[in-house]
Amino acid sequence: MNEQTEERLLDLLCKRAVNGLTSEELKELQAVEQTVESSVDLNSLEMTAAAIAMSAVPASDALPDHLKAGILAKADEYFAAQNKANSPAVTTVREAGKSSIPIWGWLGWATAAAALIFLALNLYETRTVDRANVSPTPIPLPQKPSPGTMREQLLASAPDIVKAEWGPGNVKGVESLAGDVVWSETRQEGYMRFSGLPKNDVSQYTYQLWIFDENQDPKTPIDGGIFDVNADGEIIVPINAKLRARGAKAFAITMEKPGGVMVSDRSKIVTLGAVKPNQA
């Protein structure tokens, strides 16, 4: 095989490994391959050509899909053959026969191994760069409706709403308090609306709701949950009943120690609200 043929063969193998060949170039390659000595390892030569072509490719560029697949498919085959070639048995046969190995045989295995290492590193670096440059797409979390919105939805959809207007309790300074409480027994859901309820010092006390219904002893009304006020103006607070309330008759807000109590002494009732008779 003369020098011109070798150069053309290397050029065609390079193009096939990296970009692929046209039908005319493929025919030319097949014709050239028939003139190549049988001792030449064309697979190794093709990987050598690929390594030469890829040496000018930046590490951040992605490998062609067909070349990437070829590397993965041929890797085990190349390294297994290389290990076999380096085994003592093979070395003994070569020394005994004193057969010469064509330059393409040595060049093929050595540069093919180098090509595989180079291309594997290129593939690894490409993946690393791609992962570093691509930020994960944030998944928006569903927004929970505000208590005001949830109150409106309850009023619009629950058929058994009962309502009570807040009135004065026995605590001085909150006489201007206004608002109401709405409650659905079937859904066990309700909301308290306040205007003028003073902010509380959470280290001193908290507000606690009590629900009086037709089944519970009036001495031990149902705990409707604790809450704090840290803003002026109108506020809406969801009810968090600890027991199922049936036939709610009245609601009361008391001032209790931080964390709330199991049973209130009702010494500080901030406000009371009774359900109208035609709603009970």
Topology:
Layout: H1 3-18, H2 23-33, H3 42-54, H4 65-85, H5 88-97, H6 103-133, H7 147-157, E1 161-165, E2 167-168, E3 178-184, E4 189-195, E5 206-213, E6 222-227, E7 234-238, E8 248-256, E9 269-274
Antiparallel strand pairs: 1-3, 2-9, 3-4, 4-7, 5-6, 5-8, 8-9
Portion of residues in beta strands equals 15-25%
What low-confidence regions span 5 or more consecutive residues with pLDDT below 50? 90-106
Q: Tell me, what is the CATH class of the largest domain?
A: Mainly Beta
Overall residue-averaged pLDDT value:
78
Report the major sheet.
5 strands, antiparallel
CATH third-tier fold name of the largest domain = Immunoglobulin-like
Radius of gyration: 42 Å
Distance between the termini: 106 Å
Number of domains: 2
| Number of E strands | 9
In CATH terms, what is the architecture of the largest domain? Sandwich
Give the strand order, joined by hyphens, for the main sheet.
2-9-8-5-6
Give the SSE string.
Answer: HHHHHHHEEEEEEEEE
* Shape assignment: rod-shaped
Q: Which structural class best describes the helix and strand composition? A: alpha+beta
- Helix fraction? 40-55%
